[in-house]
């Protein structure tokens, strides 16, 4: 029996970018996000947040979470500063209600910004 769309849990998709010295694998990132959520909010909080890494391409990715627990998920991401001895910082690019929106609004824009040449400052 299918659940009606109006009764399903609402999700939010957090687009983020990782700055690190080395390449981080998807498996390492999933483990670190899970550890961070559990250490901050416990098992009950982690089950309420229900984080799931939807996509990750070496430097940027999309994390799914419960709509009411978006701030807690951002806090858990902010607490990650070390993955397997590599210093990292996770920067949240934006939050959207769909994967498509998060990808088009935040992930592709960050890729365009990187490919643009730096503007020269006139004195």
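^ Assign residues to that structure.
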């Amino acid at each position: 029996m299918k659940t009606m769309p109006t009764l399903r849990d609402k999700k939010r998709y957090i687009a983020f970018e990782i700055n690190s010295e080395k390449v981080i694998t998807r498996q390492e990132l999933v483990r670190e996000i899970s550890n961070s959520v559990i250490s901050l909010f416990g098992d009950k909080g982690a089950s309420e947040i229900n984080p799931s890494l939807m996509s990750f391409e070496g430097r940027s990715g999309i994390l799914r979470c419960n709509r009411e627990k978006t701030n807690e998920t951002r806090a858990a991401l902010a607490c990650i500063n070390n993955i397997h001895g590599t210093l990292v910082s996770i920067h949240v690019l934006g939050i959207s209600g769909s994967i498509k929106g998060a990808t088009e609004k935040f992930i592709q824009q960050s890729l365009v910004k990187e490919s643009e040449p730096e503007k020269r400052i006139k004195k």
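The first strand starts at residue 11 and ends at 20.
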